[in-house]
Amino acid sequence: MRAKTFQAAVVSLAMLLPAGADAEGFDTEHIFGFMIGTDVGSVGEREFQTETTGRFGRSGGTYRALGQEFELEFVPVKNFRVEVGSTFASHLISGVPGLDDQRGLSWQGASVDFRYRFLDRETAPFGLTFATEMHAHRVDETTAEPVRSFGTEFRLAFDRELVPDRVIAAFNLFYEPEWTRVVGSSAIERDSTAGAALGVLAQVRPGFLLGGEARYLRKYEGIGLEELAGQALYVGPTAYFQLSKRSRLTASWSIQAWGRPAGSTASLDLVNFDRHQARLVFGVNF
Questions:
Q1: Which of these, 6, 5, 22, lies nearest to 238 by C-alpha position?
Q2: What does the domain layout of the chain look like in residue ranges?
Q3: For the segment 70-104, what is each residue's pLDDT rounded down to a tens digit?
Q4: The pTM is what?
Q5: What is the CATH class of 45-285?
Q6: How far apart are CA 240 and CA 39, in angstroms?
């Protein structure tokens, strides 16, 4: 049912796009949902972006988490991009094993993201960008408990046009350590996530790209990638729409196709990961 709804939305939006233009080159900065491309924008470029991420389904009961991030992006010098953001979180948790029932909306925290492009695929065999994002949270994104949390993400992105101006592929490697202290406790919890992602998009018509993303994630207790807690494979479609010369929209949906908590023979890991994830990104240049 969700897949049919996504397909119907994609077709409807595609019908609204202007027709009759030739295929254009790719700008991979924003065309993926849960991944990143290697493009970082032009010097002096400024953008406002909203990123809505939904996570649904755990090992039982009702689990719905929604994150709404507002971001400003700047390109002060060639090949270097800065982004600052602020996030609000909404949770509905009821009857989920291992989690307290929660229901509410709150300001979650703030983040800053830096990206530097080392290789431009226009002049090199492939594009290469390194990104690091740091965030501070006052609400845990999974449990909705009040916390004092600090985390960072290191990501290496590659991309290459498989068919010039028609098909683009990207590959990401990432590592995300996080330190969390529950309010009222002195104990600091340490965990980390590492993984890889592959995405391929085809330009169906000018301004409309359609394809998919696959992500393999591994969750660890501690930040040294020592004790594995669980792993999961997500797959799903992604669509990108160039709404106008200054505005864009990306829609992506992923389902956990396979997973396994440590010490279990289950075919899904709904202890450490969600069953479904969805993301909608709208951006405008100014």
A1: 6
A2: 45-285
A3: 999 999 999 999 999 999 999 999 999 999 999 99
A4: 0.91
A5: mainly beta
A6: 15
